[in-house]
């Protein structure tokens, strides 16, 4: 069984926009926690991916090259 270091989920853009709070000068802000994020997941797509180079590079920048 391959080791899964992280999970990448597909999110519905229209469901995500339902949580957008617009401000005149600041654009949009999203306040999402675990429950609303679960509602935005696309259930028909494959949820777990074994590797993602872009996410790995982002995590290395955030947590250092020893990630």
Give an overview in words.
By secondary structure, the protein is of the alpha+beta class. Helices cover 34% and strands 12% of the residues. The protein has three helices and two strands; from the N terminus they run αββαα. It has helices spanning 13-17, 34-40, 53-63; strands at 20-23, 27-30. Strands 1-2 form a two-stranded antiparallel sheet. Strand 1 and strand 2 form a beta hairpin. The longest helix is centred in the last third of the chain and has 11 residues, at 53-63. The two termini are 21 Å apart. The model has no long low-confidence stretch (mean pLDDT 77).
Notable characteristics:
67 residues, alpha+beta, 2 strands
């Amino acid at each position: 069984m391959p080791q899964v270091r992280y999970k990448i989920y597909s999110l519905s853009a229209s469901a995500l926009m339902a949580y957008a709070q617009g401000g005149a000068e600041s654009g949009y802000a999203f306040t999402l926690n675990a429950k609303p994020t679960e509602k935005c997941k696309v259930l028909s797509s494959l949820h777990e991916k074994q590797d993602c180079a872009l996410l790995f590079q982002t995590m290395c920048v955030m947590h250092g090259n020893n990630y």
